[in-house]
Amino acid sequence: MIQRCAVRMSQLATLAGAAVLLQASVGMAAEPVRLSPHRAIYELSLLRGTGSAAPVAVRGRIVYEFNGSACKGYEVSFRQITEITPSEGEPRMTDTRSTTFESGDGKTLNFRIENMIGDRVVSTNEGEATRSDDGALSINVKQPMPKRSDADVEVTFPTMQMVRSIAAARAGETAMEMKIYDGTDGGDKIYHTLNIFGHRSQDPLDDPTKDVEAMKGMARWRVNVSYFDNAKADANPNYKMAFQMWDNGISSDLTLDYGDFALKGKMSKLEMLPASPCL
Question: What residues make up the domain containing 10?
Answer without folding.
Answer: 2-272
